[in-house]
Amino acid sequence: SDLTAAVNRSEALRLLGRNEEALLSVEDAIAHAPQLAQPLWLRGRLLELLGRDDEARAALLAAAEHPTDRSAEVFARRDLMRIALARNDYAEAINQCKRIIDLDRFNADMIANLGALYAASGDKQQGMRELWRALSIRQNFSSKAVFTATALRYVQVALTTTLEPGELRNARFLADELQK
Question: How far apart are the first and last CA of the chain?
Answer without folding.
Answer: 55
